[in-house]
Amino acid sequence: MRACVPLIVAMLCGLAWADLYSEPSSCRGRCYKPVDKHRPCHCDARCQEFGNCCEDFEMLCGHEGFSHSSDAITKDELRSISEKIYKADINKAQKADIVLNSQNCISPSETRDQVDHCPQRLFTYVNEKLFSKPTYAAFINLLNNYQRATGHREHFSAQQLAEQDVFLREIMKTAVMKELYGFLHYHNRYSSEQEFVNDLKNMWFGLYSRRNGERDSSGFEHVFSGEVKKGKVTGFHNWIRFYLQEKEGLLDYYSYIYDGPWDSYPDVLAMQFNWDGYYKEVGSSFIGSSPEFEFALYSLCFIARPGKVCPLSLAGYPLAIQTYTWNKSTYGNGEKYIATAYVVSSTQ
Q1: How many domains, in total, are found in the chain?
Q2: 187, 280, 308, 336: which is the annotated catalytic residue?
Q3: Does 36 map to a domain?
Q4: 87-to-26, 32, 64 alpha-carbon distances in Å
Q5: What residue stretches are annotated with the SMB domain (predicted)?
Q6: Strand residue runs (E) in the chain
Q7: Distance, CA of 59 to CA of 46 (rounded, Å)
Q8: Which of 33, 229, 237, 308 is catalytic?
C-alpha cells in the first residue's frame, strides 16, 4: 500500500548529582507532575514555557514521561519495543481476512467539503472468525456501553464494569501485552503486573468531563468507540468499530487522504466518513490490528510520551502516535487520564 499524499501533522545521574540537587529544588521523582505552588521550582510539562523549571529538569526529564534518568525511554528504545510488539501480534488479521475498497483519495484541502467520493463501502469483506478470538470478543462487548453524545453522564451496570475487567484480563494473556509490561517493568515504571493493570483501568476507563461538568467521557470511549461533540465526530480511531457500524448501515465512508506503506496488516488509513449524521473530517486508524496491539501502542505512548508525538517503528517503517492528556482532572497520585491517541504520521 502507498500514500496518496504525504500525511504530516504539525504539533505543537550519579550520586554527586543527587547530592547537588536535592528536594524541593530538584525534579528527581517529580517529572511531569502537576505544579506544586509550595515548591520554588517546577517540573511540569509547561515549566519551560513559563521559565520556572528546576535546574535539573532537562537532565532528569529530558526524555519525557519518567521520573529520573535511569527510567528514561529513548526514541531508539521506543522504536525497538514497538517492533517487538508488532512481531508479537499473532492475533492480527491476515491478508485474506480483510478486503478493502479504499476507492477515491482526496487532498487535505478537500477534507472539510463533506463530499461523499466513494459510492461503495470501505470494507468489502472481513473474516468475522477474528471476532471470536477472546480479545476481539471482549473488546466488541465494550463498544456499545457508551452514549456517544458528550455532556451526558455515563452510567455503567455491574455487567458493563465486569466487561472492562474481562477485556483487561484477556489482553494481559497475550504476548503483545506481556512484551509491553516487561519493557515498562524494566524501566521501573511498574513494580508488578497488577499495578500495571490497575493503571491501565484508570487511564482508559476512568470517567472525566468533556462537557457540562458531567462525567461523560473516557479514553476508551473517545479513542475506540467514538463521540459526538458540538455536531462533529471526535475520536473514533478503530477499524473494528468502523466495520461494525458500516455493516449496520450507520456509517458512510466518504474518502481517504492517506494509505500506509505496509503490504500486510496492520496498516494505517486516514479517512473521512459520516457517522449516522455526523461528519469526521480526518480519522486515522490502524487496519487489521488486534485490539491488544492498538491498546499496547497507545498505552506505551501515553506512558512514555504523554501529550507528545511518540516515534515508533513497524516492520521497518517509521510511525508516530500523538496522545493528549486530560488536564482538568486526575486520578491516583496526580496521574492524568488519557484524552485521545491516534496515528499522526507515517512515511516510507
Answers
A1: 1
A2: 280
A3: no
A4: 40, 31, 26
A5: 23-65
A6: 98-100, 123-126, 227-229, 232-234, 251-259, 267-275, 278-287, 309-314, 317-331, 335-346
A7: 16
A8: 237
Residue given cell 504530516 in the structure block: 8
Q: How far apart are CA 6 and CA 108, in angstroms?
A: 10
Tell me whether residue 6 is in a domain: no
| Mean pLDDT calculated for residue range 169-188 | 97
Q: Is 237 a catalytic residue?
A: yes
**Would residue 54 count as lying in a domain?**
no
Number of H helices, E strands in the chain: 11, 10
47/191: higher pLDDT: 191
Half-sphere exposure of 297 (CA within 13 A, CB side): 32
d(CA 304, CA 133): 29
**185 found inside a domain:** yes
Is-catalytic flag, 280? yes
Domain residue limits at 248: 91-344
More confident residue, 41 or 61: 41
Quick one: pLDDT at residue 327? 65
pLDDT in tens, 60-83: 665 444 333 346 899 999 999 999
Please tell me the pTM assigned to this model.
0.80
Indicate which residue of 222, 229, 308, 336 is catalytic: 222
Per-residue cell: 277: 449524521
